[in-house]
Amino acid sequence: MANYYEHLDQTFAALADPTRRAILARLEREDGASVSDLAKPFAIKLPTVMKHLDVLGEAGLITRSKLGRTVTVRLSPEPMKDAMDWLRRYERFWSASLDRLAAYVEAKEAEAGKGGR
Amino acid sequence: MANYYEHLDQTFAALADPTRRAILARLEREDGASVSDLAKPFAIKLPTVMKHLDVLGEAGLITRSKLGRTVTVRLSPEPMKDAMDWLRRYERFWSASLDRLAAYVEAKEAEAGKGGR
Lengths: 117, 117
Description:
Number of strands of chain A: 3
Strand content of chain A: 5-15%
Shape of chain A: elongated
Oligomer: homodimer
């Protein structure tokens, strides 16, 4: 179980940075990208991008494979499933607020309906 | 939009700690708890718990209200909704793996069915 907790720590920590989230979002759209391609959109130096990739790699969120001089980075989204499962137990709060909102709108509509006649 | 990103940074960073996640999980079950009650299950000092509560408070994940000498902590789960919405785009990967698994099981069953007759 200790592993599961550490794993969640690493996943959430890896997601707590906009550059890392942007890299993951790009890898969600493209099946594999080179490190230099991934670095292009950012106004940060390549070594900084490499550090972000290390964090993502240690969290198990990406894989890197080398062919010749090119390192291809791919998404490995499994750890995000556990993060989402952890968050899912709080869903009832949002649906509860939505239920209250729906009840409010219905009550208002009923009132408006009465008033209009 | 800068706010939205910072907000996600803070939410994910706040979730990257097992003590903070345990506090949130407890507040999910109990509607409000005092700081000393929250601190009890942990083998850490009260000031450390207070620091964790500060991180959760700054991320907007809890509210604190004081009545006399008692501070009551309550869950404020809204920021987790954005975190979950962010993660949701990766869901297709898990359902895709499940689809492949289902196809594999079906193929195996079909094979076993043929072999058995």
